[in-house]
């Protein structure tokens, strides 16, 4: 559906739309004792003034055929989930309950769940409150210029992988120019990944 909307906006209104990862609200506690609710990465205070950050957690219930337990547990654990309950409803239907961050399911969790279970698994969740988490702001820079629309808040353990994937994807999407385009992923002043779109070669045969 998203691709259809993008295509119509482009064709009918000549609008070039950039889609970004969905965000969830975070609560930031500063070293000055302030509490700030942040809804996107650009609203995050300077790293030096942050005491700690809390993110929303959920209790996720997954009901699946027993054949797919292993795949689903692998998926949920990769999303920073923690298995809290495993209960057989029948001889071949299982209920799994995980505690996991809300941010980990808003993007592609449902599609992956359906894919690895061949459509048999169903899921539901409810929020359980906020917990402290080691989150960092991942910035994307094009030729040294920060692109706010591509910034993301992510867990420190996932930052390198996400930055690398974003740089590689942007390298595929950005057309070649008359000059090199440097694509960098950074946490603060530290560059964690880089790709380069090489400049077009000049035609000197004419």
Mean pLDDT: 88
Q: What profile does the largest beta sheet have? A: 6 strands, antiparallel
In terms of quaternary structure, the protein is single chain
Shape: globular
SSE order:
HEEEHEEHEEEEHEE
Number of helices: 4
Question: How helical, in percent, are the residues?
Answer: 10-25%
Would you identify the CATH architecture of the domain at 56-130? 2-Layer Sandwich
CATH topology call of the domain at 56-130: Alpha-Beta Plaits
Topology, number of strands = 11
From the structure above, extract its key features.
Alpha-Beta Plaits; globular; 6-stranded antiparallel β-sheet; 4 helices; about 210 residues; alpha+beta
Provide structural commentary:
Helix content is 23%, strand content 40%. With 206 residues, it is of the alpha+beta class. Among the domains are: 56-130, 2-Layer Sandwich (Alpha-Beta Plaits); 134-200, Alpha-Beta Plaits. The strands form 2 sheets. Strands 1, 2, 3, 4, 5 and 6 form a 6-stranded antiparallel sheet that branches. Strands 7, 8, 9, 10 and 11 form a 5-stranded antiparallel sheet that branches. The N and C termini lie far apart (47 Å). The mean pLDDT is 88.
SSE blueprint and pairings:
Elements: H1 2-13, E1 26-30, E2 35-38, E3 50-65, H2 69-78, E4 82-88, E5 93-101, H3 109-116, E6 122-133, E7 135-142, E8 145-146, E9 152-155, H4 156-173, E10 181-187, E11 190-197
Antiparallel strand pairs: 1-2, 1-3, 3-5, 3-6, 4-5, 7-8, 7-9, 7-10, 10-11
